[in-house]
Design a protein that fits this description.
Blueprint (H helix, E strand, L loop, with lengths): L1 E3 L9 E7 L6 E6 L5 E5 L9 H10 L3 E6 L5 H4 L2 H8 L3 E5 L3 H5 L7 H14 L9 E4 L3 E5 L2 E7 L8 E5 L3 E5 L17 H12 L7 E4 L5 E2 H7 L1 H6 L4
Parallel strand pairs: 4-5, 5-6, 6-7, 11-12
Antiparallel strand pairs: 1-2, 2-3, 3-4, 8-9, 9-10, 10-11, 12-13
């Protein structure tokens, strides 16, 4: 666990921790204003059979209470454990962009071959079933929300999926999902992906963000916007860099 500092003297320090899912190594981020506070769980992915025990262990270690589940996009490896997590905490509002809402109930609508094969295996082995979660809140582009005492600006970033979003948290961190990784970006060749939309997203939504933002990606390690502007070949190509 690392504590990430806010951008100003009065910005609260964030508690930032994660569980890395067994399948596809998806980062499930847990964000809070501090130990013993409410928290937001981002993208609960695929465990064995789900991530609830790992998430619960991490949350309990910091004496946190889950108040919301933020979904950066509707792919199975980011949504698989939503329902069991909601059952475990007896609630937890699920926040998702309207364009990916249908994937929560039917993730097969946007699966590649590997994900579909895993979905079929898990469904057979564990009886995994999907339906729309309770307590859904629809996210909009440029929406400002308060979650667990943290200020978040939601930015719609289509490309990886039509309903992909990133979230700027307390002007210090960027939850980037599969829109931006350290040195790479999310695939656009899967069902519902769009390379053209991704180029617009990278140029008009990501490249203009403050360089000091610490990026919390859907897969892999942390980075910063500044570092990606200097070194990420996809982001540099989108803005006309060499």
């Amino acid at each position: 666990m690392r504590l990430g500092l806010g951008s100003g003297e009065n910005e609260p320090v964030l508690l930032v921790d994660r569980v890395v899912a067994r399948h596809f190594a998806t980062n499930c981020w847990v964000l809070a204003t501090g130990i013993g506070q409410e928290c937001v769980v981002v993208d609960p992915g695929i465990g064995q059979p789900h991530l609830v025990s790992e998430i619960r262990s991490l949350v309990d270690s910091h004496r946190l209470k889950i108040s919301a589940i933020l979904i950066t996009h509707g792919h199975l490896d980011h949504t698989f454990s939503i329902l069991p997590l909601q059952r475990d905490v007896n609630g937890g509002t699920v926040l998702v962009h309207r364009s990916d809402r249908d994937l929560l109930a039917d993730p097969t609508l946007a699966m590649g071959a590997a994900a579909l094969a895993l979905f079929q295996e898990l469904s057979k082995r564990y009886g995994a079933k999907f339906e729309e979660p309770n307590e859904i809140q629809i996210l909009e582009d440029q929406q400002d929300i308060d979650l667990a005492g943290m200020q978040m600006r939601i930015i719609h970033t289509p490309g990886h999926t039509p309903g992909s979003i990133v979230a700027v948290v307390n002007d210090s961190h960027l939850v980037s999902g599969d829109t931006l990784f350290a040195g790479s970006i999310g695939r656009t060749d899967l069902s519902r992906g769009s390379a053209a939309d991704m180029q617009i997203t990278l140029r008009e939504k990501i490249a203009v963000l403050p360089g000091e933002l610490e990026v919390l990606p859907g897969h892999g390690e942390r980075t910063t916007i500044d570092r990606e502007l200097r070194t990420n070949p996809y982001l540099r190509a989108a803005i006309g860099g060499e």
